[in-house]
Design brief:
CATH topology of one domain: Rossmann fold
Number of helices: 11
Radius of gyration: 19 Å
Number of strands: 14
Strand content: 15-25%
Strand order of the largest sheet: 3-2-1-4-5-6-11
CATH superfamily of one domain: NAD(P)-binding Rossmann-like Domain
Low-confidence stretches: none
Largest sheet: 7 strands, parallel
Bound molecules: uridine-diphosphate-N-acetylglucosamine
Length: 341
């Protein structure tokens, strides 16, 4: 298949590109490199022996999007492009809505004009907002859009709705919404991985930078939640499992719109992540408990049964595997993709 990855140079996109190339698909990436580097894709080419067609464009710019995609030939789109920093979205809501919604609207119009019917969208468990306290594993029948605490999360819920409405008007559209839980880890080679700009917002990249000595200690956001040890519980999914989930979704598309949770079904607390990372790295991770972070949930764990059954997909890698692979990436690339020095 010829697959277009929007935002394909990023953390998740580069791993999806690798899995597609290994399968023998053709990969085209469109990215504006606003939060990624072409170096990741160069490494994917080296790892796989494949080649990636790279187009630099900002899809939120209608004219640029049309110009970039007009002459490209592709049968399916995996739409990963978008801004994703929660705190930044609170400070710059209109930028988040404009970028994430306009890029999706432009893409959908271009797909329709070209009669490209296959779409996999990079959504997030954040669309479940603040679920009822008695729900311990989230399945796809949970209501979405209620109690979302930030504009980033709302862009994901809005885009899910936009895709559903577009499909009503264009019944041939075959769309899947993938609701990621917490992607972590890296390709086991340690050649590609997550390269956050500035201070990492997310737990595992922060822990990785503490382990390697780039930051002094981890701040644990609260230890009074009703969880196993009082710290927040999440469903951490190895990025290679997540990437394979995209390929599974691509091969099971049919007309309509379906949502799938991509998660392991298992929750781990912040302190469990710290211990797993210490075991994988052999380093101590100093931490200090601080106040809870605004908008955080006590726990968020997937029920992945629907994806297991319909997509014939399940996670096979553990939290320990993710820590080992994150550590390999971190030690080989202490400055991410930036040149050393
Ligand atoms: C966050 C976003 C979510 C987004 C996802 C991926 C919020 C409320 N949610 O999910 O919308 O899709 O990132 O980008 O921001 N923690 C610490 N110390 C840290 C960092 C995190 O204790 O320095 C804790 C958090 O309180 C949480 C867990 O670690 O319990 C995971 O946090 P994080 O990696 O930021 O992911 P989420 O908050 O689940």
């Amino acid at each position: 298949m010829r697959v277009l990855l929007t935002g394909g140079a990023g953390y998740i996109g580069s791993h999806v590109a690798l899995v597609l190339l290994e399968r023998g698909d053709d990969v085209i990436v469109v990215d504006d490199f606003s939060n990624s580097s072409p170096e990741g894709l160069r490494r994917v080419e080296k790892l796989t022996g494949g080649s990636i067609e790279l187009v630099e464009a900002d899809l939120a710019d209608r004219a640029a999007a049309e110009a970039a995609l007009a002459d490209l030939d592709f049968e399916a789109v995996i739409h990963l492009a978008g801004l994703k920093a929660v705190g930044e979205s609170v400070a710059q809501p209109s930028r988040y809505f404009r970028t994430n919604l306009n890029s999706t609207l432009n893409l959908l119009d271009i797909m329709r004009a070209k009669d490209v019917r296959k779409l996999v969208f990079s959504s997030s468990a954040t669309v479940y907002g603040t679920p009822d306290a008695d729900v311990d594993r989230l399945d796809e029948s949970q209501p979405i859009g209620i109690g979302i605490t930030n504009p980033y999360g709302r862009t994901k819920a809005f885009i899910e709705q936009i895709i559903a409405d577009v499909q009503q008007a264009w019944p041939e559209l075959e769309a899947v919404l993938l609701r990621y839980f917490n992607p972590v880890g890296a390709h086991p080679s340690g050649e590609i991985g997550e390269d956050p700009a500035g201070i990492p917002n997310n737990l595992m990249p922060f822990v990785a930078q503490v382990a390697v000595g780039r930051r002094e200690k981890l701040s644990v956001f609260g230890d009074q939640y009703p969880t196993v040890d009082g710290t927040g519980v999440r469903d951490y999914i190895h990025v290679m499992d997540l990437a394979e989930g995209h390929v599974a979704a691509l091969t099971h598309l049919s007309p309509g719109v379906e949502a799938y949770n991509l998660g392991s079904g298992e929750g781990h607390s912040v302190l469990e992540v710290v211990r797993a990372y210490e075991a994988a790295s052999g380093r101590e991770i100093p931490f200090e408990v601080v106040a809870p972070r605004a908008g955080d949930l006590a726990a968020s764990v997937a029920d992945p049964a629907k994806a297991n059954a319909d997509l014939d997909w399940r996670t096979t890698r553990t939290l320990g595997d993710a820590c080992r692979d994150s550590w390999a990436w971190q030690t080989k690339n202490p400055n991410g993709f930036a040149p050393v020095g």
